[in-house]
# Entry
Amino acid sequence: MSTKQANTGSGDGSLLRPDTLERLLTHFAAVSPDKTALIDPSNRNRLEGRSDNPPLRAYTFQALEATVSRLAIRISALGLARGDYVALQMPNFSDTPVLVLALMRAGLVPCLIPLSWSLDEISRSFERLKPKALISCGQLNDVNYSENMRELAFAHMHVRFVMGVGYDIAEGVSDLTPLFDPQPEARDEPFGTLGANSALSDLGLVTYIDPITPVPHNSGQILSNGLLHVLELQLCASDHILSAYPLSSVPGLAAHFYPWLMSGCCLSLHHPFDFAVLRDQMRAKSFSYFAAPEQVIGYLLKNDLPVPQKLAIVRRDSHLPGCDLEVLPSLDLYDLWNLGGLGSVPVKYHNNEPARLFEQGRICLASTTHEQLCLAGAEIKNDRLHVKGRIFPDALSLKTSLEWVSLKNRFDEDWLDTGLTAFQGPGNSILLGGGPVTEYRKVAS
# Structure
């Protein structure tokens, strides 16, 4: 039985149990095959230093599904075992989400390495997980990342394969670029049944707090954190997301990548941050959702650029943002909290003030869509917030097409330091900040 037959329902293309991101892709390829799904950044050719100026990739859901399956078939043929780790260091190009989905479909676990990491930092990240394969881009600006991965493979005996995608892939590195043709071909076949064997408890991907601290995310946690953003931001298939955060970051995953596949909307990419390119992208297309640091949001406002209806400021401290939000009274404004690389929480503004983040040991949202979000555990140690478990929505009364998401996916691992300054507030609340704790105690008092 093919993957499509195993994972789709009768007639309408709905999935019986779409409990992984790549199976959600199969769903939208069935129900919206010709809809534009994924668009490359407009400056990709310049970043790669290409003189031939090939057309940028823009995938429909059907073409994306075919490309993901094609890659999964090729990667599976290497003989890697299900659950093996694959280190992935890629820019914010369309190749990256395609590779993540293909590795998931092949039963492998992508480990998302930040593009800014040095060879030494990447080497240190290998010590705990020991990836069996490495994938990177080719030439980007002044660096050929596939050469770096080839060098790392020589130094680490656990690495069996080195692959690359993009421009000018180094000699000795397997070039996957020809498999990324976004046009579905007649010979493309469904991947098979391996992807259908996954469950909510299966490990989906790995991010990093630092080179020696990998953070595993299983499928249940991925879907739950994505569902949180879909509900709070009220995203749907008609939305158009502009993502300037790479998939190696939690905001890039939870605020963009997960909601994209859970809502079936369109995702355009921006390789962060080129303000001239960002300006052109904003003027050329109508985006409905954009999340970025405060200085980037400030740039949009100062330059009178078209601003998406849903605007989120990515934050790690408890001060109100410095940019003037009062000039945007008609927009849906959010603080996007990155909890130490573990999860991402959007908090909507009301009367230009954010809701309290913690109260009674829970993350509280002001939205009426759902009342509260939970952490498996949160406590203060040495004036810093430590958490146990993953963030997930309280959906006991949730009425949505995504009711199949299981919320019983807490971990019992050791307490993890989020890096956020925290101290006890009124009652059982926890107040957060990013600076010296004494400053926030003064503010609170």
Remarks:
- The chain has a mean pLDDT of 77.
- Residues 61-76 form the longest helix (16 residues).
- The radius of gyration is 21 Å.
